[in-house]
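Re: Re: ligand-bound prediction request (bumping)

Still looking for help on this. To restate: I need the protein modeled with SN-glycerol-3-phosphate bound, output as structure tokens. Inputs repeated here so nobody has to scroll up.
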Amino acid sequence: MIALPRIIAHRGESALAPENTLAAIQLAATGGASWIEVDVNISSDNIPYLHHDDGLERCTNGDGYLVSRSSEYLDTLDAGSWKDPVYAGEPLPTLSATIAVLKHYGLGLNLEIKPTAGWEKPTTKAICDVIKAEWPAELPLLISSFSPEALGHAQTGLPDVARGYLVSAIPPDWREKSAALDCVSVHCSQELLTAEKAADIKNEGLSLLCFTVNDSERAKTLFSWGVDSVFTDIPTDMQAALG
Ligand code: G3P
Ligand code: MG
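Reply:
Sorry for the wait, this slipped through. Here it is.
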């Protein structure tokens, strides 16, 4: 079983800094976070970048699908101004640049593979290649995805890296699905979790992680149900509130 912290910074300190950027990771780290969650997709030339959406419009000054854009184009983008002018010029980070920052701060990572539909295999392969070459063995790593196909490719490409079965609502066949992918954890929306379902998952010997929890009282309730970790946009404040 993987050792998990109670709090995982969701896309970094994403309430205050632009999500999925090095600035957001650094802010979470300096605020005391020990683990970060990020979303990872690939460029048209197979370079993994941190990004949540298929399209570049919401979180950068670029446009089009990330998967259709070259790294040469992506490296020119401003991924910070949309959040706050103070972050103007913040780059869209590669997974490689992110690993360097995580290593600097000694942070654990939940890497969420976020493939554009149809691109599960090349996306996962490119991510596995970077992880194999650059991930520091001493740091904890947990790979998750809403895409069972991507998780299956991760199982093949990185069999020794822990996998998390990621869903919004826990489906009736969660046991079979998570077992087929040899997952160590279930990640689900906190809004749809019940105490009974949490107990079922914990009794199966799986870790349980919930997104996105920005209310400390809700976090306490979830922990009382056996939830191991919450993903939060406010890791520094959440840490302070939970003590
Ligand atoms: O991995 C947990 C959570 O990040 C999943 O939802 O949409 O925020 O990537 P989303
Ligand atoms: Mg995510």
